[in-house]
Design a protein that fits this description.
By secondary structure, this protein is mainly α. It is built from 11 helices and no strands.
Amino acid sequence: MKLHLLEALIHDFVSVQLKTNEVEWYYPHSMVEHFHTFWKPPELNSLRATYEQCLKSDYTQRWWKRDNYRPKEIMIKLIESDPELATIAWKDLANDAASLDGRIYRFNYYCDELLQLHRHRNALSVETYHHQDASVVSLYLAGLFPAKYSLYPGLDVFSIFCKIVGSPDIPIIDDLVRYEKVAAIAFTFLQRNVNFEKLTEYREADRHHVKFLPFQLSYELMVFAGEKNKMTSR
């Protein structure tokens, strides 16, 4: 990553955000804040209700419900298949004292096991994948720790961002651990931008009815890079 390219991208991003009255940022910030507000330590008898409450939005459900993509629906089935194992899975994911790569690996393992239990107990089930991919796991992590983890915009957007900032290693598969490291670096330099405090004040103004979560600017920066690439490619 070349810092002058990252700083140039950040400069363009912050400048645009200070000049626009658009509020696309409401959706990602409100989604993460809603999860964070309603999450509570998972318990055997309440995990399903907690999970369902956490994944709600006043804007759109596209993060967890699209054509052939139903991570929320599938997770509910996984929880129902074995609430005790599901509770263990969520407690482990929420344990920020452990390494991120280990937590993600184990969470995927638990989901695989829960899916097999679901299929065993529901002979007519057509589910072959649990849909707990990098995108929705990034929502879980950001919802649990909104000041430390950022939403993941997808492989295509992350790859474009890496190209724009001159990374010599362009990702070809989803790697949430690497992404979160890059997001943390991006946020560090966002904070160093001369207009960062001005943007923070603008986003925290009373006219906005959504709580501004500064670390999620890293996600917005990635999306901005993707949109900028589309504009220059036309």
